[in-house]
Structure formats: structure tokens, C-alpha cells
Amino acid sequence: MVTYTARMDDVFKALADPTRRTLLDELFRADGQTLTALEQRLPMTRFGVMKHLRVLEDAGLVVSRKRGREKLHYLNSVPIRLVHDRWVSKYAEPWVANLSDLKHKLEDNTMEKVFEIYIKTTPERLWEAITDPAQRARYTFGVGVKSDWSPGSAYEGVPEGASMPIVAGENLEVDPPNRLVQSFNALWSDDVRAEGTSRVTWEIEQVDDSCRLTVIHDQLRDGAHGELYGGWPMILSGLKTLLETGETLTTPGSLRYAGAGASGWGE
Q1: Torsion angles phi and psi, residue 197, rounded to 5
Q2: 32 compared with 97, residue with greater pLDDT
Q3: Structural contact between residues 171 and 160, judged by C-beta atoms closer than 8 angstroms
Q4: Which domains, from first to last, does the chain contain?
Q5: How far apart (Å, rounded) are the C-alpha atoms in residues 146 and 58?
């Protein structure tokens, strides 16, 4: 609880500054920007922009990744989702989840979405929660993902009581408990099925008594349907809740496929 509270304090501190909010607005407008690109949009020195980005990174609101010689910065909506789950979701409708529907463009006209969260657990427990169907169903909208989890094997997610999967793919890399790379095919509607195959990478890194989990959803068509990636903040919030408290997240839409269900991984 102390770690969670301290992290939330960092989020509010980061959001209190108008310059940092402007940086987040810029990344919301176009995700995956370099320091040089962000510097050109603010009336301050490069060093000043770097300082503000560091505060945002420390709060988990921005995630940076190397691509060749460049360092790209991404807006991470998971901490905002956690604030929503604590105080807002009791009163709000599912449309609030649209806050996590972010856009950016990359050189090859594909999109990459990056989400990061810290969970107080071990890499082994986190890996088990990702690969165990019963645990997975408790935070992935009620859908348990089944596979033998060997490299090159298939996986599929079938809602309880259904006969057909709503998501399927191949396990491209399997390195427990550190890294899982999967192809991703959404099947729950004609709109998302038409988007074809994308890729999801789970990266687990132990940090003291916790784990940093980074989920990268890439090889998305530029302008791809938001349902493909919009649900990740809720999924990761549910995973954190499960491993740290043993409870199931019950915010609107979090158990969409538990029972009768409806449509929309990312609604």
C-alpha cells in the first residue's frame, strides 16, 4: 500500500505542472516522439524539456524506448487508469475508458502502443498469472487464454460458455518468466477481424520486491480500430489488482465476457 500510495503521489505531482500536461497532450496527439520533436513545441531549452520528461517517466506517465539512434517517448495511460479505478469508475460509464485510446504514427505507417505498470509480485507469479487460463479470465474481460505455451504453439481465448475464440494467435517467443511475444488476431467482430495480425510483447523485469511489466502492442495498421488496443489499461489494472490483493477488478466492462458478455476487447 505504501508503494502504491507513493506512486500515486508521483502521478499527481507530475500532473500538477502545466508544462508537463502540455507534454502529455503532445504525446496524446502524436505518440512516440523524440526529445528534439517535443523541444520544438515548447518555449524552453532542451534541458528543461528533459527535466520535465524525467518527472513524467518517474511517475510512469511516459515510457521511453530506444529505436536505432533515437529515443522515442510514449504516453503511458495505465497510471491514469489506476486513478480512474480508485475514484471515478464507481460513478462513470464505460466511455471513460476512451482516455486510454491513444494515437501515434511511425515511419512505416504502423502504430506501436506501449503500456507499463509496476506490480508487487515475483516474476514467476506474474508469468503464471499471464499464462494460467483461470487467473487470466479474472482480468481479461472474463476470457481465459489457453495454450501449451511452447515456442511456435497456438493460443486462443474463448469466453466461458462460448464455442468460438474471440482472440487467437501464435506464441512467437516464450522465455519464462521474462518475455512472451505473440501474434494477435482479434475475432470478436468483422471490424477488428479485418485489421489482420498484430503483435503483443510482454516484458517482465524484477525491480526490488516488485516487477515492471511492459506490454508492447505493435505492428498495428496506422489508424487501426481502437478496440484492438484500448483495453490494455483495464487489463493491466485488473492484473495488478489480482496479484496484489487477490481480488477481481469489477469496474464497468472489466468482466465483459464473464457470463453472457457483449462485444469489444477495447471498448
Answers
A1: -95, 130
A2: 32
A3: no
A4: 1-75 (1.10.10.10), 103-267 (3.30.530.20)
A5: 35
